[in-house]
Amino acid sequence: MNISDITARFSVDLPAKPFGNGHINSTYAVGNPPKYVLQKINTDVFTDPEGLMGNVVAVTSYLRERITEAGGDPERETLTYLPTTSGAYFYRDGEDNCWRMYRFIGDAKSFEAATPALFADSARAFARFQRMLAAFPAATLKETIPQFHDTGARLGQLQAAVAENRSGRAASVRAEIDFALARAEETHVITDAIADSSVPLRVTHNDTKLNNVLFDEKTGKALCVIDLDTVMPGSLLYDYGDALRFGASTAAEDETDLSKVHFDLDLFRAYTDAYLEVLGDRMTPREIELLPTGAKLMTLECGMRFLADHINGDVYFRIHRENHNLDRARTQFKLVAEMEEKAEQMNGIVAEACRKYHLSGS
Ligand code: ADP
Ligand code: GN1
Ligand code: MG
Question: Which of 40, 130, 256, 303 could form a cystine bridge with 26, CB 3.0-4.6 A?
Fold first, then answer.
């Protein structure tokens, strides 16, 4: 399938080149300089592209209104999807691939690693995103990937991968499997808190990696939350936790030298302080108390997902080298081990921010 045939479906006639480094979808920048982003939706992962595009179009339309009310610029502060010539928001080609397009936001960039100040600003962006969606009718959203952040269910998937052992690799990663299994009981803490209503379901982003925020190149400030495919009902602890999993590490997610991988408490403090400053007044005491647990469980969960995919033969996350998913799993487990060592300090940092913002947390 020719890319220009695809862009034509969106009434766009500009050249496209590969762009971005996500693990799931395939991304192209269209135009030179870029005017649009074209994405092939990974339909093995997102099996209901209609539901997915319904979600993201509804959420961005809603955000557009909130941003306008607040005096912001909706063209730059949220994504704008293009309809196809037939009026749908994605195009299914002859090979059953699904494509969507949205406007490229110029003079903006994303980061793979952060300073505390930059990381704090990404926290404000995700916290504002959460505030703006507080009254969004959550029941209208499709659950694009069921049990996406159900850490207990993710452990079950890892156990199933080990039992099936499709790649024959299970024996070689016994230490990593045991690391995950040893934490089985903790995997239920957030889902239990949702079940007893001490942690409410909200409309959450669920993939709050630092590189899913665009920063304005002129002001240096966080501008736009992107990568909205997993926006669905969830816990705020998922958003907070996943952001720390990625952004509070001193190394890349796939670093092979584990001596470089640390959970950085200055980055943890910066994110936590900014997040609570913007959102603390909306949070329940149990949400605040579980913030460090959120960081740990999202990191453990992501490690389990990478490990399960390694054992399954790399069928979910895109890899660029041998054992890539295993390398990713190892960094996550290293971070979990450090979070366990630093648990008391993490609780102290949350308590410090609660005092500062007069919140009734831990
Ligand atoms: P992936 O699923 O591959 O992570 P993203 O939607 O996060 O896809 O896009 C990948 C990268 O492309 C982002 O990290 C960002 O740098 C860039 N990008 C995405 N959308 C836009 C946009 N609308 N304007 C400018 N850059 C963008
Ligand atoms: C995937 O697509 P991308 O790279 O933004 C994954 C996230 C993981 C992340 C790990 C739909 O995100 O859940 O946390 O990789 N997205 C999906 O880097 O599974
Ligand atoms: Mg992304």
Answer: 40
Same domain, 284 and 335: yes
Q: Is the pLDDT of residue 47 over 70?
A: yes
Report the chain's mean pLDDT, rounded to a whole number: 97
Same domain assignment for residues 261 and 158: yes
By three-state DSSP, how is residue 6 classified? Answer: helix
Q: Which domain holds residue 270?
A: 116-357
Picking from 233, 236, 220, 224, the residue whose alpha carbon sits closest to that of residue 60 is 224
- Between CA 244 and CA 265 the distance in angstroms is 10
Atom 7 (ligand 2): residue with closest C-alpha?
207
Is 345 a member of any domain?
Answer: yes
pLDDT of residue 64: 98
Q: How far is 129 from 143, CA to CA, in rounded Å?
A: 19
Kindly state whether residue 83 falls inside one of the protein's structural domains: yes
- Is residue 290 assigned to a domain? yes
154 CB within 6 A, ligand 2 = no
Give the lowest-confidence range in 14-23, 94-103, 297-306, 323-332. 14-23
What letter represents residue 54's amino acid? Answer: G
Closest-lying ligand 2 atom to the alpha carbon of residue 21: 4
What's the pTM value of the predicted model, to 2 decimals? Answer: 0.97
pLDDT for the residue numbered 361: 62
Structure tokens at 12: 């766009």
Helix, strand, coil percentages (3-state) for the chain, rounded to 5, are 50, 10, 40
- Asked if 237 and 95 sit in the same domain, the reply is no
Distance CA 348, CA 362 (A): 9
46 CA: nearest ligand 2 atom: 11
Instruction: Measure the CA–CA gap between 339 and 151, rounded to whole angstroms.
Output: 17
pLDDT attached to residue 1: 72
Q: Name the β-bridge partners of 215.
A: 109, 222
Mean pLDDT of all residues in 250-279: 98
pLDDT tens for 174-203 read 999 999 999 999 999 999 999 999 999 999
Determine whether the shortest distance from the Cβ of 176 to ligand 2 is under 6 A.
Answer: no
